[in-house]
Amino acid sequence: MVPLKELTAETILSKEILTEVFDQEDELFRAELLASLGLRAAELRVKTEFRDMVSAYKRIEKEMKRQERDRKSQPCTLEQWTNFSGPYDNMQCKQWIATENGIYLNNPSTGYTDVLACYHPILPVERMKNLETGEEQIKLAYKRNGRWEEIIVPKTMVTSANRIVSLSGRGIAVTSENAKYLVRYLADVENANEDHIAVQYSTSKLGWIRGGFLPYDTEIVFDGDARYRQIAESIAQVGSRNKWYEYVTQLRRTCRMEIKFMLAASFSSVLVQPLGGLTYFVDLWGDTEGGKSVATMVAASVWANPDESAYIKDYKGTETGLEAICDLLNHLPLILDDSSKKNRKIEDNFEGLVYDLCSGKGKTRSNKELGLNRENHWKNCILTNGERPLSSYVTQGGAINRILEIECGQRVFDDPGATAELVKRNYGHAGREFVDVLKDLGWDKVREIQQGFLRQLADDDKMQKQSLSLSIILTADKLATDYLFKDRQYISLEEAREVLVDRDELSDNERCYQYVLDKVAMNPARFDDKVENVEKWGTIENGYAIIYTTAFTALCKEGGFSRASFLSWANRKGLLQAEAGGKKMDKLKSFKGNKVRCVFLKLNDNTDKDGFIKVNEDGVQETLPFN
């Protein structure tokens, strides 16, 4: 085949190119070729024409296969073929008699066709091979009450007599008596018609899959868990495109940072993986009635139905459930409403949940066969809101580093009810168009824009992971503004920088140091030999808090900090008096003749010998706000 870069707008639409592609016997290789050609066609701006040509070739191929099948079936007897009325072609079924009255097999012991496989027409019509796991599912078509229906089930369900019985709950007439014959019939039909039953490659994840984007590209179909199918089905284009754009453009013109940032964050989710970013949170927090939930709904309407029972979720589920939803969404944004609404288990380990979601992968779990389940993974943006900042629930710097927080002011929306109703009736158009923009531009151009923002955000005093996340959001904002809204309502760099956290504020060890000093100042009696009947933590001498090692360890554990990490950091910073050899970070100290190991921690320069911070250097007492 001609190299992709050498193809022109004329040659890519030629009969020779498409004939060569459709002559490929390997279905997966053919799909990969079509995806690559589709991207090249988009670069040459003939995407629509190429798509029409591919559709025409598929129709021709299907018709040729049908004619070939009809030709082969002429000499065959009816008993060797299914004889169902409806939209499905007849299939070879070996010795089975398959008619509208049911599916039977001749019983050699009686001479009658009294071995029943099923009371009604049923046959396999498509195999689905999952790209992540390699596991197969099968699509069954069955006819009940004069109407054909389809169902997709794991292949292992129709190869076991014990498991296939569960299909009775979906309306298929299978019992423990006829289960083994139905299994045998379906296997015979599938194997006898291997060339006719199409293999459809599928995935249980959304987002960027093999050069395409689900659910918009149809070469690969979605076969995800039925429990979460509602989320996938909510991602659709509904209502008026123009109404949504006109209304949201008006909202952007109000220059409210809350609206523009949440929209940009929603768009940015599909950029995270291609640009090499890491999963991050965007948290909108503030007092009640400010418009947080409505701003979140507007952001969700970029992709899907923003109703709380559709795409938007909350923290009331389980950690495993949230992992599964993240795995499903993959590159699309996870949107969680109200961080204060948590079930008891999540509340007890909320920091762990935030850290796990930021990590972009789920926990490794075994299955009942003692093997390992496929590990969940995702790379996206997680949008959330609440009355308190998300960082107030988290102490680990690694998690805080992945959180970008926006404070929500008062009355973000003039009419929040009308805004919510409009985006519930009109949604999903912008997301699809944004994906088309990305395909047309190409990732080299998008990456160039993102790197430009990253260079402008570079600051030694700011955390680099946050700067990376923010550069992706600003890239999404620029692309959406230039190609979708065309209103020049960009998020300014000055506004964006206010979201970043200083490195010192984020450092676990800096916060641990301040935490210990605060504890010393709050508990002067524990360091005063003259005060009795109180548990002692140590003493204060010559600008150092000398803390019993046991008490210091307890303080670090109480604050959720690593003792070893802090002591190593404090020693490098010159805040400790370590043992002479330097191997131990604590020293022996004599208390009333007893030698005890203690941590010698330097107090702040403006902290006196008793552990109190001096407020005014000139000694003038501030006026108190009460009499």
* Uncertain ranges: 72-78, 615-627
Strand segment tally: 19
* Rg, nearest Å: 33 Å
Q: Name the structural class.
A: alpha/beta
> Which percent band covers the strand fraction?
15-25%
Please estimate the helix content.
Answer: 25-40%
Main β-sheet, in a few words?
A: 5 strands, mixed
Give the CA-based shape. globular
The named CATH superfamily of the largest domain:
P-loop containing nucleotide triphosphate hydrolases
CATH architecture label of the largest domain: 3-Layer(aba) Sandwich
Kindly provide the name of the CATH class of the largest domain.
Answer: Alpha Beta
What's the CATH topology label of the largest domain?
A: Rossmann fold
Biggest sheet, spatial arrangement of strands: 6-5-4-7-10
Q: Terminal Cα separation, in Å?
A: 89 Å
Count of helical regions: 22
Number of domains: 4
| Average pLDDT, all residues | 84
Question: What this model shows, in words?
Answer:
- By secondary structure, this protein is α/β, with parallel strands linked by helices.
- The protein has four domains: 4-69, no CATH class; 78-202, no CATH class; 250-503, P-loop containing nucleotide triphosphate hydrolases (Rossmann fold, 3-Layer(aba) Sandwich); 507-602.
- The protein has 22 helices and 19 strands.
- The strands form five sheets. A five-stranded mixed β-sheet has the order 6-5-4-7-10, with helices on one face. The chain has a five-stranded parallel β-sheet with strand order 12-13-14-11-15.
- Strand 1 (97-99) and strand 2 form a beta hairpin.
- It starts with 14 loop residues before the first helix and ends in a 25-residue tail after the last strand.
- 33% of the residues are buried.
- Mean pLDDT is 84; it is low at 72-78 and 615-627.
